[in-house]
Write a structure and sequence with these properties.
This protein has one domain. Helix 1 packs antiparallel against helix 3 and helix 2 runs antiparallel to helix 3. By secondary structure, it is an alpha+beta fold. It has 4 helices and 10 strands; from the N terminus they run βαααβββββαββββ.
Length: 166
């Protein structure tokens, strides 16, 4: 079993690498996508940069990042072997990656006194997983993780929280 984490990738990527990811906003491809109001391409460009940065630290499983399309959010993931359910994002992104020693050291060095894995969901599963991000609802992103060996599925809430839920 391996540990994985779901959170905003800005909490896992060192500042220098995060700054490099943000350089995509100055690229010709991104500017063209902005001119064409191609929001899908804008997200894909940033998602690809962020995913590539995460993969340098993520171990055997190649990390995956996705823009939420609308900004900050909070969610929970449910299923077998979930060690911590809740997570959030404040850069408008979510990612799934293996909790490697390198990522753990970065988390420890940048925890700012918060409890362990603040804002991060943690689960254990086999190394052979698939991750899907469903962004078909512009108000919400659903994260689905499937263990290819056991068929077990972890999934986040499929509906946004309302203020009335508190």
């Amino acid at each position: 079993m391996r540990k994985y984490i779901i959170t905003d990738p800005c909490y896992l990527i060192p500042d220098d690498d995060w700054s490099k990811c943000c350089e995509i906003f100055d690229s010709a491809a991104y500017k063209k996508a902005m001119e064409n109001r191609d929001y899908v391409m804008q997200r894909e460009l940033f998602d690809n940069e962020t995913t590539a940065a995460l993969q340098k630290y993520s171990g055997d499983y190649k990390a995956k990042a996705c823009s939420t399309g609308y900004g900050d959010w909070t969610n929970e993931i449910w299923g077998v072997n979930v060690l911590k359910h809740d997570f959030f994002a404040d850069s408008g992104m979510v990612c799934v990656c293996e909790l490697t020693d390198t990522i753990q050291k970065h988390i420890d060095a940048n925890s700012n006194g918060f409890k362990e894995y603040h804002g991060m969901a943690v689960f254990e599963t086999d190394k052979d997983i698939t991750v899907e991000f469903d962004t078909s609802d512009s108000d919400w992103t659903v994260v689905r993780v499937k263990d290819k060996n056991t068929g077990q599925v972890l999934i986040t809430s499929s509906e946004p929280y309302s203020d009335d839920d508190e």
